[in-house]
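User: Is it possible to get a 3D structure for a protein together with its bound compound? The compound here is MGD. I've pasted both below.
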Amino acid sequence: MTDMIRYFREKQQEQGKETTYETRCPYCSVQCSMSLLEERIVKRNRFKAIPNKQDPTSEGRLCIKGFQAHQHAIHRDRLRYPLLKVDGEWMRISWDLALEILSEKIEKTQQEAGKDAVAVYGGGSLTNEEAYLLGKFARVVLKTKYIDYNGRYCMSSAAAAANATFGIDRGITNELSEVEEAECIILAGTNIAECQPTLMPYFRRAKKKGASLIVIDPRETGTTKLADLHIQGKPGMDGAIAVAMLKVLLDEGMIDEEFIQNRTTGFEDVRKQMTSYSLQELASTAGVSVETIQEAARRFGKAETGMVFTARGVEQQASGTSDVRQYLHLLLATGKIGRRGCGYGAITGQGNGQGGREHGLKADQLPGYRSIENKADRQYVASVWGIEENELPRKGVSAYELFAKVKEGAIRTMLIMGSNPVVSSPNQSEVKRALTQLDFLVCVDMFISETAEYADLLLPTTSYLEDEGTMTNLEGRVVHRPAQRVPFGEAKHDWQILCAIAKALGQSHGFLFEKVEEIFAELCLASKGGIADYSGLSYERIKEKGILWPCPNTEHPGTGRLFEKSFYTNDGKARFGSAIIPQQKEKESRKYPYLLTTGRVMNHYLSGVQTRRSEALFERAKEPFAEIHPETGASLGIQEGELIKISTVYGKAIVKAKLSEAIRKDTVFVPFHWGGAQSINRTTCDMLDPVSRMPAFKRTACAIQKMIEADGKNGYSKQKRTSQVKEDAKTVPDPVAAHRSAENVRV
Ligand SMILES: Nc1nc2c(c(=O)[nH]1)N[C@H]1C(S)=C(S)[C@@H](COP(=O)(O)OP(=O)(O)OC[C@H]3O[C@@H](n4cnc5c(=O)[nH]c(N)nc54)[C@H](O)[C@@H]3O)O[C@H]1N2
Ligand SMILES: Nc1nc2c(c(=O)[nH]1)N[C@H]1C(S)=C(S)[C@@H](COP(=O)(O)OP(=O)(O)OC[C@H]3O[C@@H](n4cnc5c(=O)[nH]c(N)nc54)[C@H](O)[C@@H]3O)O[C@H]1N2
Ligand code: SF4
Ligand SMILES: [Mo]
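Assistant: Yes, that's possible. Here is the predicted structure of the complex:
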């Protein structure tokens, strides 16, 4: 019997065989759990996702992305073997060789240019165990201070604001089940309907019980449809909106003096600062009416209970940290925190964006949300890691600033694990330039992403169906993700890859894990006594429903609602910050008269590497669009569906016009899930928030033009079109072909 015949015989015998995988959706922060049924059939296996009714967060729901998540995980583009770039071509190599080459490069770089010349860039899709191990690997094995992660682009302003105000950052301060207890809910810069769709029923239930919903967004969205009041301000104006609301609360005596007195500090300065503001001016800079602000403030002020949620619309601004703080002031001033139906939610984005920053992916953090600049924190973590405190590096720089360090020559080798910064970073051309300047780039991914195209070495990782671990969802609930599917080809789990690199560098000590659960046990120990204390958790305890941290001992039930008695600051009081809102430096001008804001659509996830490979999702959204008001379109002679050019001082992108009355006349919205010439991050502003170092993805002054003007004067000239096409060819790789040809070569 030839191998071929045996293969088909075996396949036939397997026909109809069904396997069930218990898993969680790999995408957003809700981390909906499900059973995935796989039925073997000769040509194509059939999959069916069944949501888990017992899931306390998703309550048994899945959105379209969750139902289709397996499609990318079984896609034929999945990387199966390590690939090395030789003269611009990918070549399959063995793991042994890959690890040898990588360790040599790391050693050479560090000998020549010092430990910090090797940098690490992580991602919020990594499990807690992998995020923890990557942080430990950077600090203990590489001994580099340069580590950060894509969560910097995501949650950092909310995290900075919550830490400054409450002394802790746990995403949502309450369990989601409390949402329906709130009488007034502010949703600022969050489009839950498309981004966390399975959470919508929480808000619908609140409304049914009579809650008033205020949504703040420059566009009408699925979320604003639920609103009783939609504040359609200009991008970047949340600080002004929240301060204006606080002014009304103060002027109309709707503040809780007793709460302010007993549980907060710093309000007197805010009270003084408020006297310098005029409501009329604030409203007009924000592009809304005074009446709308008054109504919002009154709805919130008069409600007995209330919650505020913010997401990237507010946070991804050059003033993101200050803007979030202004919203937190509304909660503190009205005493709507630390009790039932009252609280704050920074709606976490990525599957494990929350856990990533709790366990050491951020430049300034050690596990347990400890600070890398605090002596006692350093001593404790060093003792768990079996090193001296002074061996631990200090804090490095933020994700986007890592690329500046490459350009300065300070960083020469980079390891990217779980991110696609070419598509997801602002001012893309700078990032591409930095990547080409590296001596060596290694990417650990499931696919050849737009960033992996720039790599010298690619290491294949496993998907959510194959890789077990824990994730911390948007509630702060630590949940377990089982995984039973056999890895593709020679792909290894991220944690196994880190252990293998440590071994190749001759530094196995502390990286000899057999099972992922052992890493979790070490992480829990490393977090003990920290703010994000996981030390009472174990796989056994969290397997069923997960547990909300802090959970400081094995008897502790976890913490549902935070701040009932005190805050996590030194004196236990919440801190008001300055109510002076920073001036926006990115401004409209004659040349760039509109404001570009960016974000998401339901069918795609982040840089799109995964969802563009899902047939069902890609079919529903093949390319990006620019949402423009019909009057703006008409004034520029732009027709529905035609290609337009969006230009900013940072670059240009070509997208289709989508004329819609849902958006402000001075604003353009483009989703960022695509690479190549349609990638909107070619045009976004790279200004960073001074505190959080978050890029200002949500406000860039731009010009809009028909791609080809009738008179040929202003649009793309023939010669420009040709160069554009050439550039597209460079930026849109053909990963399938590259990978296929590489598979047949073995070294
Ligand atoms: N379908 C889908 N879901 C996702 C993701 C995805 O890529 N696709 N990504 C996940 C991740 S990592 C994240 S971080 C979250 C993001 O979740 P969100 O933050 O909700 O998503 P965005 O679309 O980036 O922005 C939200 C809204 O902010 C509005 N906005 C823009 N500028 C401003 C402004 O200046 N002020 C205010 N108030 N609003 C503004 C936009 O119009 C948009 O409707 O979603 C998660 N879920
Ligand atoms: N203009 C604009 N830009 C933005 C935003 C915006 O609103 N507007 N939002 C920002 C936000 S909030 C975020 S979170 C970032 C995210 O942006 P990215 O960091 O680029 O996120 P992903 O697209 O998830 O990239 C993940 C990469 O890792 C791979 N991957 C997935 N899972 C794993 C895993 O478990 N292990 C490994 N090793 N690899 C894995 C995927 O195949 C993919 O190539 O984008 C930011 N960029
Ligand atoms: S994308 Fe988010 S809401 Fe949708 S199924 Fe996945 S985890 Fe749930
Ligand atoms: Mo994010």
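The domain at 83-153+352-470+486-511 is CATH 3.40.50.740 (Rossmann fold). The pocket of molybdenum atom (ligand 4) is lined by residues 154, 349-350, 353 (CB under 6 Å).
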